[in-house]
Amino acid sequence: MVVGRPEWDNRDMEIISAIQQRLGEEAVITPGPGMDPYLTERRGLFAGNRARAVVRPADTEAVATVMQMATEHGVGVVPRGGNTGLCGGAAADDNADVILLSLERLNRIRRVDADNFTLTAEAGCLLSDLQAAAAGAERLFPLSYAAENDCQIGGNLATNAGGMNVLRYGNARDLALGLEVVLADGRIWDGLRGLRKDNSGYDLKDLFIGAEGTLGIITAATLKLFPPVRERATAIVGLNSAAAAVSLFGRLRADSGDTITSCELMGREPLSLAIAHGTGCAEPLTTSYPWYLLIDLTSSARDAALDRRLEDALSGTAEGIGDYRIATDSTMAADFWRLRNSIPGAQKGAGASIKNDVSVPVADIPAFIEAASAAVIEACPGVRPCPFGHIGDGNIHFNLTRPTTMTDAAFLEQWAPLTRRVHDIAMAYSGSFAAEHGVGQLKPGEVARLKSPVEQDLMRRLKTAFDPDDRLNPGKVVPPIGRPPSAG
């Protein structure tokens, strides 16, 4: 039974009581200390995060019940996964007229079909648990990134997550064969098909993947599996220019038999921050270089000779290559990867940072970095560009660390104008201002500013068709008509 609090109104108590009666008291967390962890947004950018209640359904039918009741009571629903997003897509805003829908209890792996190379799992399953389940069947689920012990597969699909292995296996969208989705009116679409070929109509699943819960709530997915990795070769290369990195990447793809799984570009500035502030990070080479490339080759064959292929590709006289080291064991390989994975956190040790997640065609990466660096330094003298990212798919995290002479607060006031400059340059190279982190509530203004009127109209038509009352994740992704453009 709900005990009222002074700040609650009768409508709050009515909604909470109704949900508790239908789903059980354990499914509802009411305002108070128990709700605080669900209202904490990872980057702290959305401090006004509020909600009437947190609801934790235990199965798909319960999610459908929540949506039906939300319609009856006229409240919005914000789906929440593992809270690892960086754009506020799973956070409520300062409008408390929503309930947070946590999918953490939908955490069952329904089936692993090794012969069909598929796995069916519910949305609240941790990514690391899916990886382990696939490995238990001698298969590989290749989606991987730093937050894999915390993020949930439903959120991965809702944001079309990328990560380290996009070059070889694709984004989350490329790994999904079928979905189960609860619609805004509470109906359930069962599209859990493990088929590689199905041209019997519109590919509905692709509408929900990457939509950040604005068109429907993903409750389960059938995912592709692959043969396990049996051989791996890892190297770090020092380079004199970003152009040399792009050239080497192309040559490695050809010379390695296209076995590159990951290819990460790191500038000297972000690498230096990792060495200075990261745990267990050290200089990877005897000489410092302006740029570094971290390379992983993998194969399911036991005799792929990847170390030899990597050595042959790197030992030539390619212009721009300074030095390299090939890992002699898994410990050394982990040391190389620790450098890359430490960069985002290490930036905090150097002061406030402004993070940009953009993509451009691979061939344009050097020109983009040069132009964007010049633009932000002109606008904010002393700013330290920290570019790094997935060179194989053109996704560059063009992060900015504050000048040493500027306070954190003063630098963060430059967020919007500096971000606009970076986004404008990315778009000038036929790129994107939201590569893998999504739009959330951070970038709808940039959607309004940078996407064509036709594209915005199509997005709004889809939103209206699937969610005419704007009940699903309101205020996210699709900019309201008349919203003033901003950089977030």
Architecture per CATH nomenclature, i.e. the level-2 architecture of the largest domain: 2-Layer Sandwich
Please identify the structural class as seen in this structure. Answer: alpha+beta
The main sheet comes to: 8 strands, antiparallel
- What is the first-to-last residue Cα distance? 41 Å
Q: Which radius of gyration do the C-alpha atoms yield?
A: 23 Å
Strand content: 15-25%
Low-confidence stretches: 1-8, 483-488
CATH class of the largest domain: Alpha Beta
Q: What is the oligomer described by this structure?
A: single chain
Shape: globular
Query: Would you report the number of β strands?
Result: 17
Compute the number of structural domains: 5
Any idea of the CATH topology of the largest domain? Alpha-Beta Plaits
Please work out how many helical segments DSSP would assign.
17
User: Which percent bin holds the helix content?
Assistant: 25-40%
Structure description:
Keywords: FAD, Flavoprotein. It is a single chain. The protein has 488 residues and is α+β, with helices and mostly antiparallel strands. The chain has five domains: 10-102, Uridine Diphospho-n-acetylenolpyruvylglucosamine Reductase, domain 2 (2-Layer Sandwich); 109-224, Uridine Diphospho-n-acetylenolpyruvylglucosamine Reductase, domain 3; 231-347, Alpha-Beta Plaits; 351-428, Alpha-Beta Plaits; 443-488. The chain contains 17 helices and 17 strands. Strands 10, 11, 12, 13, 14, 15, 16 and 17 form an eight-stranded antiparallel β-sheet that branches. α1 runs antiparallel to α3 (60-73), α9 (242-255) crosses α11 (306-314) and α13 runs antiparallel to α15. It is globular, with a radius of gyration of 23 Å. Residues 1-8 and 483-488 have low confidence and may be disordered.
